[in-house]
Amino acid sequence: MIILVINCGSSSVKYQLFDIDRNKGRSLAKGIVERIATKLARLVHKRGASKNSFIRSTHCPDHSSAIAVIIDALTDRKVGVIGSSESIQGVGHRVVHGGEEFKESTRITKEIVRSIEAYSELAPLHNPPSILGIKACLSLLGHLPQVAVFDTSFHQTIPPHAFMYGLPYIFYKRYGIRRYGFHGTSHRYVARQAAKILKKNPVELKLITCHLGNGCSMTAVDRGKSVDTSMGFTPLEGLLMGTRTGDLDAAIVMYLLDKEHVTLDRMNDIVNKESGLLGVSGLSNDMRDIVRAASKGNSRARLALDMFIYRIKKYIGAYAAAMNGLDAVVMTAGIGENNPWIIRKLSRELNRAFGKKVRFLVVPTNEELLIAQDTYNAINGKASKRYRLSA
Fold first, then answer.
1. Is residue 257 part of a domain?
2. Which of 14, 152, 316, 347 is the most buried (most CB within 10 A)?
3. Same domain membership, residue 93 and residue 11
4. What does the alpha-carbon distance between residue 221 and residue 89 come to, in Å, rounded to a whole number?
């Protein structure tokens, strides 16, 4: 079955085309339309396993035109991989927030679109672009079954004592304030792959998955289910990230609002866009820049690194205690996959702390493949097996 996966950002549309059967998937093509609604809009398209990219400028005033450009590229005589759009048999969409309503990947209907729109209040930067992509595909490929795959779904198995905050309970009932967690598709994929590497049934394992990129999160996966995760009501909570503070005493925000005389919007920018590795180092949000500066003796870059590692170690300890055990720590995403020194440092310190060797695995994430597989399952009426991780 040929499945098109769409991942929309505010000014870009990433895509990947898969040939999927029940257990396997092969990527036929992938790419991105970027800088939508600007004169610099362009398509970057790559066929299969080719290392060469086809790049061209394009007129893309909106997401709908970007989807049309993608379909043209996939069916192009020279760089395409299918004869026509009729070859596509389903479309899978990445959606960041599904609230408590969506516990699994779901076939898209008009009612589902309205529900996703309602959760835009909880994910104002992420859900609106997804909705634009869904509506564009419904307009251009409306004859095809389409599926929404939610980042939050994997974390719907977290128990109330872990997802609730110590606020008056009425705010949970009134506004849905709770820990939702994010990066769920990535955590689910690498946990499943880790079980294969360890040659174990997922229900036998206690794993801690670490998605470390510009945005960072960790998840405790106990016997195939997410039981806790570091991101919370929003993606701000948890680890130190590229530009986000991570864990922060809420009173600090109120204190700075008073001292700095800034607006709430300005404070939101400070904690989300100007903090983390960037804010502490004063240099960059890119780990490569931080490592280079620290190696040359930059004390603030070293401090940023120490804070980054410390929080990861602290969460590993907390999650190992919460699960009453630990079989492996799984590292993924840009920082997690490309910085073996982090594993070496953590391994030394955790081996001493636990009194035994802690196993680390590096597993490249592939959220698009999992979205394609969920789409295949939803279209064919099969249970996604998402949280048993046995698919």
1. yes
2. 152
3. yes
4. 33
Same structural domain for residues 345 and 206?
yes
Which is the catalytic residue, given 21, 151, 247, 269? Answer: 151
Question: Domain containing 125 — which CATH number?
Answer: 3.30.420.40
Helices 264-273 and 250-260: crossing angle in degrees, nearest 10, is 120
CA distance 303 to 108: 46
* 243 shares a domain with 142: no
Give me the residue label for tokens 């180092």.
281
pLDDT band of 390, cuts 50, 70, 90? very low
In the chain, how long is the greatest CA-to-CA distance? 62
How many domains, in total, are found in the chain?
A: 2
C-alpha–C-alpha distance, residues 202 and 205, integer Å: 5
Reply yes or no on whether 289 is catalytic. no
Please, how many CA atoms are within 13 Å of residue 339, restricted to the half-sphere of its CB? 23
Are residue 120 and residue 14 in the same domain, yes or no?
yes
Same domain? 137 vs 267: no
Torsion angle in degrees (nearest 10) through CA of 21, 378, 233, 222: -60
Do 248 and 322 lie in a common domain? yes
Give the pLDDT confidence of 182-231 residue by residue, as tens digits: 999 999 999 999 999 999 999 999 999 999 999 999 999 999 999 999 99
pLDDT (average), residues 4-18: 92
Task: Provide CB contacts within 8 A for 307, sequence distance 6+.
Answer: 240, 280
Q: Are 15 and 70 in contact (CB under 8 A)?
A: yes
Q: What pLDDT was estimated at residue 294?
A: 97
Same domain, 219 and 349: yes
User: Strand ranges (DSSP E) for the chain?
Assistant: 2-8, 12-20, 25-34, 42-47, 53-57, 90-95, 106-107, 146-150, 206-212, 216-222, 225-229, 328-332, 360-362
Neighbours of 203 (CB within 10 A): 13
pLDDT above 90 for 355: no
* pLDDT (0 to 100) of residue 22: 66
The string of pLDDT tens digits covering residues 245-256 is: 999 999 999 999
Shared domain for 209 and 88, answered yes or no, is no
Domain for residue 85, yes or no? yes
